[in-house]
Amino acid sequence: MKKTLIILSRIPYPLEKGDKLRAYHFIKELSKWEEIHLVAISDEPAQQSSINELKKYCKEIHVFPVSKWSIAVNMLKSFIMGLPFQSGYFYNSKVAKEISALIEKTKPDHIFLQLLRTTEYVKNIHGIDMTLDYMDAFAKGMERRFETAYFPASRIYKWEYFRLRKYEGRIYHWFKNKLIISEQDLNSLFITDTSEVKIIPNGVDTDFFSPRESKKKYDLLFFGNMSYPPNVSAAKYLCEEILPLLLKNYPDIKIAVSGAEPAKEVLALDGKNVEITGWIDDMREIIAQSKIVVAPMLIGTGLQNKLLQAMAMKIPCVTSTLANNALGAENKDSILVARTKEDYVRAIELLLQNPEVYQSIAESGHRFVNKNFNWEASARKVHELMYPEK
Questions:
Q1: What are the Cα distances from residue 318, in Å, to 100, 133, 209, 346, 355?
Q2: What does the pLDDT profile of the chain (390 residues) look like in tens digits?
Q3: Fold held by 2-203+374-386
Q4: Nearest to 176 by CA among 237, 243, 109, 226
Q5: For the purposes of burial, counting CB atoms within 10 Å of the CB of 77, is it exposed (0-12), middle (13-18) or buried (19 or more)?
Q6: Nearest-angstrom CA–CA distance, 108 and 371
Q7: Which CATH number fits domain 218-372: 3.40.50.720, 3.40.50.2000, 2.40.160.210, 3.30.43.10?
Q8: I want to staple 338 with a disulfide (CB 3.0 to 4.6 A). Which of 2, 81, 294, 343 is the partner?
Q9: Under 8 Å CB-to-CB from 47, ≥6 apart: which residues?
């Protein structure tokens, strides 16, 4: 069995963030064919429950903590050196030496890294084939952020955008294989020739996220990591722009906004028609309790796992063109796509008022996800890239 060292910028459990979800399922599936040695950089204490879960699939687990002081110092260093702030946030020279020693000791057949924020750890590694999962087009995501943010955040985002843009291409040739989550993200990379980048979509655990009967408590649901800026902006757009228009015909409409670590801006949305639930241990409960999932993504990159999970549970979804470009669902068949707040209102009212349309979108969305998004199939493609048959 081949030996694979996986380097991540977070402990990939629990699954409250998109990068954790992708990493966890890749580890779970790859462990069927490979011996997994996991390295996780962590800016927070490791929970024993998380380690216990990962032990099911990993031969070894090495967690390297980075302190707040280290983060501050190394972000300053990255600024001086012209590197992305994200590299500085997750990079520590002492940890780098320990990882190099671990690689020397373990002698992996292949090294897999997730996100460009981990790549400084292998810049001096030679003689071992490596795979980088870019996952999202980070520079493009940062560009969208600085275009909509206010000063001084806009200035910081702009600095990061230019650094990420340069860094995406700089590290390209370090890796034998390069992965990305969607065609939209592939086309958004600031790399001259992306022909070597393979699209590997996320999957959805359709055994876990399966249809279930539940009394409906909410008309609309938006969920995700609620400290993540694209999710914060989407929640605000839903509650501040779309909701006032819906109240004209639905004065008692109820919206749930769910997810870990809600930002102050999100907490401020709580009110008569909006409930901010915070983290929920089992998201299936609140998905099943909701009539419609709305994901009005204005900025950001990548594939929206919230849409995959809701569609797998036969909950109809309304989303933005940006989000659906990555998903690839057919508008008015498997999903409803909106461009303006008025579009969102019309789509939501259509689903609330027409049971036949509601059921048709739900059924078609369920078929679409089951056909196109499978963790085992995606992980097998990764395995075959890392270890091609000779």
A1: 46, 28, 18, 10, 16
A2: 999 999 999 999 999 899 999 999 999 999 999 999 999 999 999 999 999 999 999 999 999 999 999 999 999 999 899 999 999 999 999 999 999 999 999 999 999 999 999 999 999 999 999 999 999 999 998 998 888 777 888 999 899 999 999 999 999 999 999 999 999 999 999 998 999 999 999 999 999 999 999 999 999 999 999 999 999 999 999 999 999 999 999 999 999 999 999 999 999 999 999 999 999 999 999 999 999 999 999 987 788 999 999 999 999 999 999 999 999 999 999 999 999 999 999 999 999 999 999 999 999 999 999 999 999 999 999 999 999 986
A3: Rossmann fold (3.40.50)
A4: 109
A5: middle
A6: 34
A7: 3.40.50.2000
A8: 343
A9: 11
Q: How far is CA 106 from CA 39, 59, 109, 127, in A?
A: 12, 11, 9, 14
Q: Which helix (H) or strand (E) holds 75?
A: helix 68-81
Please report, as a single letter, which amino acid is at residue 148: T
* Tokens read off for 175: 């890796």
Neighbour count for residue 297 (Cβ, 10 Å): 25
Q: C-alpha 340: how far from its chain's center? A: 24
Residue with tokens 């790399």: 191
Which tokens is 308 given? Answer: 């995959």
Domain spans, the chain = 2-203+374-386, 218-372
Evaluate whether 2-203+374-386 and 218-372 have a shared fold.
yes
